[in-house]
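A further point concerns the way the authors explain their paired sequence and structure data. The central task, working out the C-alpha cells from the amino acid sequence alone, is never made concrete. I therefore recommend that a typical entry be quoted early in the introduction. An entry of this sort, consisting of the sequence and the corresponding C-alpha cells, reads as follows:
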Amino acid sequence: MKLRRLTAIARKETLHLLRDWRSLIMALAIPLILVLLYGYALTLDLRLVPTVVWDQSRTATSRELLSLFDHSPYFRIVATVDGYEPLQQRIESGSALIGLVVPADFARRVTAGQPVDLQIIGDGSDANTSRLAMNYATTIVSIYARATLFRQLEREGRDQLHPPVQMIQRSWYNADLRSQDVLIPGIIALVMIVVAAMLTSTTIAREWENGTMEQLISTPLQAPELIFGKIVPYFVIGLVDVAMAVVIGRWVFGVPIVGNAGLLFALSALFLTGALFFGLTLSIVLKSQVLANQIAIVAGFLPTLLLSGFVFAIENMPEPLQVLTVIVPARYFISILRGIYLKGIGLEILWADALFLLLFAVLMMTLALRKFTFKLE
C-alpha cells in the first residue's frame, strides 16, 4: 500500500464533496441540526405541568397551598373549575395533565390540626409525566403540611418536633440533576453513528453506479488504498462534527467537559472509525446508494436510541434485551462520554469500554477489506 495513491483517492473524494454541495451540507449541517433538535426536544425534566384546580374551600388557607403550586417551576395552574365534570373535560381535552381537588373543610381541618385529604388526579395516558408530577405534588403538600405544623407549635408555645431520622440528599457529578447533562453526551453518540454511517454508505456504491469503478480497477490502485483513501475525508469531517457538537453542548446547553477533552476526542476518533467502516461495509455489500443509506440510518439510529442506555436504562430492560445490548457499540461509547463529561474519569476506569470500541473498529475494518473485491464481476 503506497501513501501517494492513498492520498490521491482521498483528494478525489474531497473534491467530490466540495463539488457536491448537498453532500457537504449533509456532512456539516445535519449534525448541527440534530444536536440542536434533540438537545431541545429530548428532556426528562418536569417543567410547568398544566394543572387544573377545584378549590371547594376557597379560603386564604387553600389559596396559600395553591400558591405553592403556582409559584413552583413544576406546575402551572391553567384553570379553576367548580366540579369533577369540568375537571375531567380539561384532562380529557389535554389542556391539563394534573387535577388538584381541595375539599370544602380544608381550612377548618388545617386550623384545628386535623388530618385532611387532598386529591391529585393524573392523566394516566402520559404515565411517566403523570407519575413524576404527582410525586412532585406530594412533595409540595408535604412541605406545606410541615410548615403549617411548625406554625401551630409556635402559636402554642411548644418546641418544634424534629423527625428521629432525616435523609440528606446529595447528587454527585450532576448536582442539579439536569437531564440535558446526561442526554447531551448520548446525543453526540447518536449523531456520530448516524452521520458517519450515512456518509460512507454511498461511497463505493456510487463508484459502481456511476461506472467509475471500472476505471479505478484499470489503475495500479490496490483495494486497501481505495478503502482507506475513501475514509480519510469523512474521518476529518467526523472529527469536525464532534467538535461542533461539543461546542454546542457547552455554549448552548451549558454542558461542559469535566474530564480530559483530549481523551474524549481520541476515543471519539476510535468510535468514528468503526462507524465509518460500518457504513463503508454496507456500501461494498449492497452496491446501491439508496439501499445502503437507508439501512445505515436504521441500523445506526435504532440500536443507539433504544439499546444503548441513551434514553432507557439497560438495567430496566428484559434480560434478553440486556444481552442484546452487549453488541451495541454506542452503549460503550455513551458510557465513555458520560464518564468523561460528568465524572471526569480517565482510561484507568474506561479501558474496558475503550477496548470494545477498538474491537468494533478492527472488526468493521476487517469486514470492509474482506468483502471488497477489486475486480469486475
The chain is about 65% helix and 5% strand. Strands lie at 49-55, 75-80, 98-102, 119-122. The chain has two domains: 3-43+178-371, 49-155.
